[in-house]
Amino acid sequence: MSGAERVLRRPSRWRPYAGVVPLALFLLLLFVYPIVDLLWLSFFDKAGEPSTEHYGAVVANPVWFRVMLITFEIAGWTTIFSVLAGYPVAYLLATSSESTRSRLLLWVMLPFWTSFLVRTFAWIVLLSQKGPLNRLVAALGLSDAPLSLIYNFTGTMIGMVHALMPLAVLTMLSVMTNIDPRLRGAAATLGARGGETFWRVYFPLSLPGVAAAALMVFITALGFFITPALLGGRRETMISQVIIIQVQDLLNWSFAGALSVVLLASALLIFILYDRLLGISTLSGEARAGTGRKTLLGRIGDAIGAAAVAVLGRICDIVQRAWEALRPPRGDRARRPMARGVLWLAGLAIIGFLVLPALVVIPVSLTGGNFVTFPPEGFSLRWYQEYLGSNVWVEATLRSFAVAALTGVLAMLLGVPAAFMLVRSRARAKTALIALILSPLIIPRIVVAVAVYVVYARIGLVGTSVGLVLGHTVLAVPYVVITMMAVLKTYDERLDQAAASLGASPWKTLTKVTFPLLRGGMIASFLFAFITSFDELTISLFVSGGLVSTLPRQMWNDMLLQVNPTLAAVSTTMLVIITAIILGAEYLRRRAVKA
Amino acid sequence: MTAKTKLKTVTLSKNYDSVVALAGADLEVREGEFVTLLGPSGSGKTTLLMMVAGLVQPSGGEVWIDGKLSTYLPPHLRDIGMVFQNYALFPHLTVAENIAFPLRMRRLAEAEIGKEVTRILELVQLPQVARRLPRELSGGQQQRIALARCLVYKPSIVLMDEPLGALDKKLRDQMQLEIKALQRRLGITVVYVTHDQEEAMTMSDRICLMNHAKIEQIDTPETLYFRPRTVFAADFLGDSNIFKARLAAGRLEGPGGLVVNGLRNGVGGPVTAIIRPESLRVLSNGEAAEGSAAGKLENVVFVGGFMRLFVRLSDGTILQAKGATAPGLTLPPPGDAVRLGWPAAATVLIPEGGAA
After folding, report:
1. N vs C: which end of chain A shows fewer Cβ within 10 Å?
2. Which residues of A touch B101 (CB under 8 A)?
3. Interface predicted TM-score (ipTM) of this complex, two decimals
């Protein structure tokens, strides 16, 4: 094509989509197709004839029904506790100054990214019958017999809430930071005390965040298996565990498919219900557009809600009035905001609950004894020698690094152009594309894993590192796109236009202006993708096929067999690596967004 | 005016770490008065207002509201009303519920609340929007509802933080007059923050001009405009010609042969002189004036109702004059030699190293 021709030709109408096409194709091929395929497979019996026998089995066998019930029960309680305990933390963060918020946020992010396996291992140590918690209880004389905190519902709850509360906090925070801080000031000048301001103004406005957090936690909890398997008893068997057994031990893929479909359908049903009631846009923290006329049910709900917050507000107000009567505020002396102090105390206690338990793996890994004990017996580095002297562990570690690095590269190659397009073009299909890209985060991971496994098995990707990288990229790419979109939104596109007007070609503009300015955000995205892969167990569980083990996979195998101090050494190593990466990524991301 | 004092601040100050947001502000507002805090951004005007409201804790000094020491009193015990920059209407409550909010906080009976809401909505001429949500209203309507919410409980002082900032020019002009009329009619005391000098001039009984975290001058709009006490005041309000000059025995000698005779000011020495462009006019041949300067017409700009003339004096100083326009007027061509004249009384002198 001659230059003149190029100038004269109008850009094709597909051009705005160019950046997102590779990613969309990738996801269609390795994410959407396998899931549809799994759905399809579940409608065939073992002989390959079309049938609904699997669904019949799910309904007919009371064991499966009980598993579903338990799954919902555990997910439900996890949601309630995560949201209740997460709310004060999110509120504290949202109402603090910018600098305080970003400092506190780091302590919520850290457990969010820290390996579930490491955290679960820590709980095994802490909650065991001779563990530090029971020792403390005995020392204080609170109970004669040791409390059973593990291998039952209590243990499962502690582990699940610990795992998912950061997600609840982050989701609520995204809504709360959009609440105009002046509204609280306005309520105060209009004569409202703290209690009335919170219940009548802040709380109703934060409710979409609460609902979104509940949704995210519930759906994620539905697909959990690590925590109930390691901290729960026989009763606490969740559907994902059953799926794993069907795939790994019984090789009954189509039945596993049926169970996955049931799980997926429950998740989607809840999602649709949520959308009907509140609208999906609240998930991203955006306020609802015009609500339109409400249904009768909606109006009744509103009336009950308004009455409830009025009563709660009034109760708090009566208490505060009584306090004011007891100790009248004085015009000549600064007052100490007591409620704020209580909030800080509660917030820090909950953040401590999130951050501190994982640290127990460090002393345990340094024990001189032969067993996992806390406090450790003596000091030695022998378990690190054990770890680094073991071929299995070293190979798994190196493979995890390699797979994570390749996943990071691939996720960047696919995600960065897509993020550019999603931020900059006004393509109409944008919302649908964002939904597609983010859906690997919302669909229960176990479903993705089974679906990917079944397709891989057919084309010989099981037991290969390539298979691991492709599978992990599906899960990592949403984080890359989210991070890059956030960074790009703060990037002034006029800088590119300026470069172009000064004579730089599109390629030169990209490499000399855009990328250097976005470097921090890009490194951060890469690191988030790296960690997603480094810490991934679900897909690795199936895809590694027992041949190419990754670090989490190896940890899982060991933990199922027997808890040993080598695991503590491995956990400590993982904790250190992940913490370093998260701190680095966060530092770079913040610098990138600020600049 | 002998009305009683509604609000008084005594050396009120605020520091954020090492940054001084407000340094020792003394302000007194009388009952029924409309006082505007005017200044560029970062001058401390909003900080001052927020400390009066009780939303920001002072670092030092005192706030007196209605004769009661209120420096550290929480906002809900101050009996103040506040209209915020973006209105801060509660987005989840209807207009009526928004307006009822302060009345509920004061534990009024529901029947009375209903009556009050209706009354105030009629006062702001929006009785038809009671059941709508704030986001369903236009900017101007939201502004009026914010005002209604603040007036409905008859607070002792009404504070307004750039309440018209988000409106377009036409609506802003209209709302200025409306708010002013309402304030006069109800006799409310208002402390108003703006960075728009025209708005301040239109609405205020007195203007408190602020700069660099300090109060520069508090006066009526006329005094502030024609008798600025500092160069900043002269420069901030309207256009002005500002130059250094020497004063001796009632005669001022400025740059480029500029002279002013017949000044009553007895003090001599170096001064800064300020003359408003509208005081200057082009002298015809042989015409004399107390103040005069000769130069070359550099540029003439037609601005509709008036024109701006820029005259370069022999030393390069440029004087700006404003002249009236009328249909059929031909603008004088640039390059002409002209003489400008003005009365001695229009010359404001600020002693060098003094208040400026």
Report:
1. N
2. 187, 190, 192, 200
3. 0.84
